[in-house]
Amino acid sequence: MPPQIILASASPRRSELLRQIGIRHLIQAVDLDESPWPGEAALDYVQRVAAEKSAACWHASPQKLPVLGADTSVICDGEILGKPENQAHAQALLSRLSGRSHQVYSAVSVRGDKGHGLALSISQVQFRALSQAEILAYSLSGEPEGKAGAYAIQGLASVFIESLTGSFSGVMGLPLFETAELLAQQGIKVIA
Ligand SMILES: Cc1cn([C@H]2C[C@H](O)[C@@H](COP(=O)(O)OP(=O)(O)OP(=O)(O)O)O2)c(=O)[nH]c1=O
Questions:
Q1: Is residue 65 included in any domain, yes or no?
Q2: What is the residue with the minimal CA distance to atom 23 of ligand 1?
């Protein structure tokens, strides 16, 4: 069966989530400067970066398949936490999240012959208090690497999460409700 879309992302989580809903895709990751602009609000930032990822791939792509780009950011006290640079940074990020709630913003952008669609998913995640031993062990597990906020809801960190309001798939990197709506705009149906 031929691919239905191009996924403009190096994230294995996004590919896994697309597979979960049966969307056949090629992977063509794009390399962008993902730094926030000075004074840029987090809500604007995630949407801009998702749109830039799909645009870069769409303009470079010879196959005229719809292109999907996404961006996921963890926001604590209005600040974008980003991915950990090393284990010490991962521990610092986890200490910030311990015993409190934060937001996860996930934006999806789909471009195709039928135009451009952009959607945003906002989730609220409550972490229980983490001990120093847990923060250390988790940072050594390798799981924080490459993950916004230094944790993976789909992994071991699930035991830190007291509650989630919003979208599990959105926190993991690709909100599937919004994704299905954007794909439908391009004539791609997930179910019937
Ligand atoms: C919060 C959270 C994030 N993540 C991941 C999803 C994304 O891969 C990553 C956020 O970084 P992104 O910059 O959104 O994506 P990426 O760099 O992995 O891939 P690309 O830019 O090529 O699209 O964090 C999880 O896997 N689980 C989680 O619980």
A1: yes
A2: 9
